[in-house]
Prior knowledge:
Layout: H1 7-12, E1 29-34, E2 39-45, H2 56-65, E3 69-76, H3 78-92
Antiparallel strand pairs: 1-2, 2-3
Amino acid sequence: xxxxxxxxxxxxxxxxxxxxxxxxxxxxxxxxxxxxxxxxxxxxxxxxxxxxxxxxxxxxxxxxxxxxxxxxxxxxxxxxxxxxxxxxxxxxxxxxxx
Length: 98
């Protein structure tokens, strides 16, 4: 935590302009790589195609060679990653996932 007790409070009051200009990216896979000094979040998309009517063995073989399409990479400090985790946990409380 910063030595200045007002830093955290000031950061929470930052104003965000509308993000209408950002292109939404769909991801359904992610990977996390970390070192002592940074956390790297890599987001990707995997959409299996042509699996209908295949045997379990054929599907297993397909999945062994299938690849995730990387979409985006975000690098942040461990402190930033912990803050993100806290914000996500707060926002997802009470969410029912089937």
